[in-house]
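Can't paste images in this forum, so I'm doing it all in text. The chain is below; anyone willing to post the predicted structure tokens underneath?
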Amino acid sequence: MLKYFSGSYFVTIFGLIAAYLWGEHVLAGTGFTCVFIASVLAILEISLSFDNAVVNAMKLEGMSEKWRHRFITWGIIIAVFGMRFLFPLLVVSIFAGVNILSVLDMALHDVNKYAHYLELTHAPIVAFGGAFLLMLFMDYFTEEDKDIHWLGFIEKNIQKLHKFKGICTATTLIALGILLYFIPIEQRLSVLSSGVAGTCRMA
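Text version of the structure:
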């Protein structure tokens, strides 16, 4: 265990120490609160990533040693620093019309202001995530070779839709179009562009 996870243990301990020090730096006496929050987020991330780990393990089986190394190295960089760090800053920056460096400064030093701008971008963020998850849902349940069913009658009927090329994308875009009628007109363009981006990411 130590051989394979020593790096993970080191990063975890380093992260918790950094959380404590940052908490004390921002507001004295909040170090352990920050450690608790970081621990809860770590547990949540691990629990939600088990399915990704299984899928990645299956993909890695068919790769050469060179591409396994690239997959893991680049994958960690993109997943951790790209999607968990850079992507939220970019989303707030783009849809709130704020410079990304200013967003980073807010996230580090002015949590209330950052939360305000994050709330302003709530609709496009949800649209992106919702479109991506709906595409994932449709792709799984319309898979032609899927032979394991939890709700047989329902899933077998949905599976028949695989005969229609582009059904996953069409379903997601129709759902997005319906959603646009229920949101304020000033948010429709940002929600539409985010939803299409989420659809394209999975397509």
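The chain has a mean pLDDT of 83. Residues 121-203 form one domain.
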